[in-house]
Amino acid sequence: MGVSGSGKSTVGGLLAQRLMVPFLEADDLHPAANRAKMAAGHPLDDEDRRPWLLALADWIREATAAQGGVMACSALKSDYRDLLRQAGAGVWFLHLAIDRASAERRVAGRVGHFMPARMEASQYAALEPLRPDEPGLTVDAAADPQSVVDRAADAVRALR
């Protein structure tokens, strides 16, 4: 979880490979209207996100019934994470924390992504870091992706 540009897709894909479980890029489940709204520079509201979050919860239920999985998802608000946790036992979050300037640089350097760098402010406005009662780990997203994956994989293995 984390803001756009924090490395969710990179770290999530690597972690899924390491754990040998399926990977989902949550952005792939956004309806076309959500993508268009964000591409136009308008942040999504909770009503926009609800169908997307429900689709993600369905994926979690399926993954939980199988061998598990890794999902790269912003999950910026604790309410969103609560909904996702209700979808399956063992849902655990890796918060990739990054400063705004670094995230903006990363997003500005992307080619072909629907999320413009000017939307970063809305991401930080919505971001609610992991609460102490939420299962997960917060790491510095500026670290080398492999070291982040190492820490995350160790934490996940400790849960088993």
TrEMBL record:
Keywords: ATP-binding, Kinase, Nucleotide-binding, Transferase. Pathway: Carbohydrate acid metabolism. It holds the Pfam family SKI. It catalyses: D-gluconate + ATP = 6-phospho-D-gluconate + ADP + H(+). Coiled coil: none annotated. Its EC number is 2.7.1.12. It comes from the Bacteria. Signal peptide: none annotated. Transmembrane segments: none annotated. The keyword Metal-binding does not apply. The keyword Transferase applies. It is an enzyme of class 2 (transferase). Belongs to the gluconokinase GntK/GntV family. This is Gluconokinase. It comes from Streptomyces hirsutus. The lineage of its organism: Bacteria, Bacillati, Actinomycetota, Actinomycetes, Kitasatosporales.
